[in-house]
Amino acid sequence: MTKYDPVDNILGISNVITPKAPKKPKGFGGFGRTDGMGRLDAGKEKKEKPLGGAFSHTYAYDELNRLIRAEGKAKGLGYAMDMSFGLMGEPLTKVQRTDSGSVAGSYAQAYEYGDADHPTAPSQIGHERYTYDANGNPTLVEDDSLNTEQRMAWDEENRLMALSDNGKTSRYTYNAAGERIVKSHGYLEGVYVNGAPQGLTFHETEDYTIYPAPILSVTRQRFTKHYFIG
To answer: According to the UniProt record, where is the region Disordered (predicted)?
Structure first.
């Protein structure tokens, strides 16, 4: 069951029906496994677990219809999430709590906006710091807790050309219509003198995808042809 407010925001989703395990089909020995000769083996019969189950989720919004709270429960585990926003609509905080006991599932993040040229683009979210180019595209994401970084390069039409994720690089090539026609992956090697790059070598040895036509895509080991009806 789904509930909505007067402006069609979802207020809650719930299901109170607890499913039962599927019944065994008659005449086939249930959901048993087969032996080496393809015969049903009653000794290897397995029990099917029921799918789905009872759950409930509720949501709350502010006067501008922004989600500020969500909470719910399913299969005995619950969660709650709260968010706050600034005057320009930018997120300020996000706090999530779960009953699973997982550290990754529960967290509290604060959004900082320290770039005067991009006042609504976060400069830091939790442990991640963000750097942008003049067009507002992210060019560097650093995580000081994991000591990792991601670097991105964009073309003059704000299309992603390259993504370097801790030494592993993905490159993207587009045609005149703006459609991506080549996607490749590999490792990047560079020579630096006094911290300045003198030369870079890109090794596209891992994988690549080429899109020569809308109905065809080619990877390193196979190709796929797509058929459309209508």
So the answer is: 24-49
Distance from C-alpha of 23 to C-alpha of 31, rounded to nearest angstrom? 9
pLDDT per position as a tens digit, 38-77:
555 555 555 666 666 789 999 999 999 999 999 999 888 8
Q: Does the pTM of the predicted model rise above 0.70? A: no
30: left (phi over 0), alpha (psi -120 to 50) or beta: left
Spatial separation of the C-alpha atoms in residues 18 and 45, rounded to whole Å? 24
Answer for the pair 54, 28: CB distance below 8 angstroms, yes or no: no
Residue ranges per structural domain of the chain: 1-17+54-112
The answer to whether the beta carbons of residues 213 and 200 sit under 8 Å apart is no
Q: How many CB atoms lie within 10 A of CB 184?
A: 20
pLDDT at 40: 54
DSSP label at residue 9: -
Measure Cα distances from 67 to 88, 91, 95 in Å.
Answer: 15, 11, 13
